[in-house]
Specification:
The chain is of the alpha/beta class and 408 residues long. It is 37% helix and 17% strand. The protein has a ten-stranded mixed β-sheet, with helices on both faces. It has a four-stranded mixed β-sheet with strand order 10-11-13-14.
Length: 408
């Protein structure tokens, strides 16, 4: 009855999707996305280099022989979900969605655009406002929409028009032209969403999870369960980086809340880190690179958001941050990604305890390479994790699952 969880230990974009994809091919029977929304895409390249991107769907949907779940800790935009399922030709036998998932409504898109996108650098996809409504106990749930789309739409429309009225009454006094444009943009978004609402609700009905404790049944059936996290520990709503964070918690604790599994049912916690660090949005970035190395890492590593296309700021690997995430989540296994990118940088440096230290030049991503072996040693020694795997390239199958202990 093994269960593994894959978590990002930085600020997202660590390459969790390709690690999950590798485990899907070799190990997992069931893949569960347990938090976040459609703002957190995963990019996967198959053996031939063909690119696939998922947004809210678990990476396991790329394999037609696997079963996937979107658990109740996720927020879903039913129109986006409908489009993504159709684009990847996913069938209900391969995917079910918890009826308790809060939905992202047009009012949430509007609030995100007006209040948060500029201030916090959000993706503007309504994730934060949707979670806000959920905790305020004012959500329209996924099961509400697929079971009673007309009644749900009445509530959705009422909330949207109330907000538009609030904007108009609040800002008309100042004759703020930007607000006028935003109000118009909100109406355009609302009208586009409504056009596909009923088609989406009808299409998604077969994907509704009928039994909320199904994961426990799958566990009891001795299936290999893989829990897929989105974003990273540094973006957790409970992080010290608040308010420059996301609106969910990419953590073991959130996985338990969302899936109904308990802590004794998690057999392995796999933390994913990049061999350097990237960040989007606002907030502190102590190890950010301001030299030409940043451009090299961004170009070679293709550091652009899978969902938004936004460029990412690049920095050195922050081992203090990684160690903190390891301790908080009980990480027992690290997987270091994009190690091949570091072969393009002379004498790469790593950040720890407000000091930089260099390693020898990395020429090849093998244990025989002095620079690469030194890197793994630093990571192991600083985090206390002995079980370290790594990637050798971006394609499917280019993960070396290294099971022996790393020497200090």
């Amino acid at each position: 009855m093994p269960t593994k969880i894959v978590l990002g230990l930085q600020h997202g974009d660590e390459g969790k999707g390709r690690v999950v994809d590798d485990l899907v091919q070799t190990w997992a029977d069931v893949i569960v996305r347990f938090q976040g929304g459609g703002n957190a895409g995963h990019t996967v390249y198959d053996e031939d280099g063909n690119k696939f991107v998922t947004h809210i769907l678990p990476v396991g949907v790329l394999n037609k022989n696997k079963f996937n779940l979107i658990a109740k800790g996720c927020v879903v935009n039913i129109v986006d979900l409908y489009k993504e399922i159709k684009s990847l030709d996913v069938k209900p036998k391969n995917l079910l969605v918890s009826g308790l998932c809060p939905t992202i409504e047009p009012v949430h898109l509007a609030k995100d655009r007006v209040k948060y996108q500029g201030r916090l650098g959000t993706t503007g996809r309504g994730i934060g406002p949707a979670y806000s409504d959920f905790y305020a106990r004012d959500s329209v749930l996924f099961k509400d929409i697929v079971n009673n789309p007309s009644e749900s739409l009445s509530k959705i429309q009422e909330k949207f028009f109330d907000y538009q009225t609030y904007l108009a009454e609040t800002y008309m006094v100042d004759k703020d032209e930007d607000i006028h444009l935003l109000i118009e943009k909100n109406f355009e978004t609302f009208n586009d969403w409504i056009k596909e609402y009923y088609d989406a609700a009808e299409y998604l009905e077969p994907f509704l999870l009928k039994k909320e404790n199904m994961i426990q049944d799958l566990y009891a059936a001795d299936l290999n369960i893989l829990l897929e996290g989105a974003q990273g520990s540094g973006l957790s709503i409970n992080s010290v980086n608040y308010p420059d964070v996301t609106s969910s918690s990419p953590s073991v604790g959130e996985a338990l809340n969302s899936t109904g599994l308990n802590h004794r049912q998690i057999d392995e916690v796999i933390g994913v880190i990049k061999s350097y660090k990237t960040k989007v949005g606002t907030g502190k970035f102590p190890s950010e690179i301001f030299s030409s190395y940043a451009n090299i890492l961004a170009e070679v590593g293709k550091e652009y958001g899978a969902t938004t296309g936004r460029p990412r700021k690049c920095g050195w690997l922050d081992l203090d941050e990684v160690k903190s995430a390891v301790v908080e989540n009980g990480v027992t296994h690290l997987c270091v990604t994009k190690t091949d990118v570091m072969t393009h940088v002379d004498n790469p440096m790593y950040y720890a305890e407000e000091m930089f230290f260099k390693t020898p030049r990395i020429y090849n991503v093998t244990r025989e390479d002095e620079g690469f072996n030194t890197l793994l040693g630093h990571i192991s020694q600083h985090t206390g994790v002995k079980n370290i795997s790594f990637t050798t390239g971006p394609k499917r199958g280019e993960v070396v699952w290294y099971t022996e202990l790393i020497d200090d």
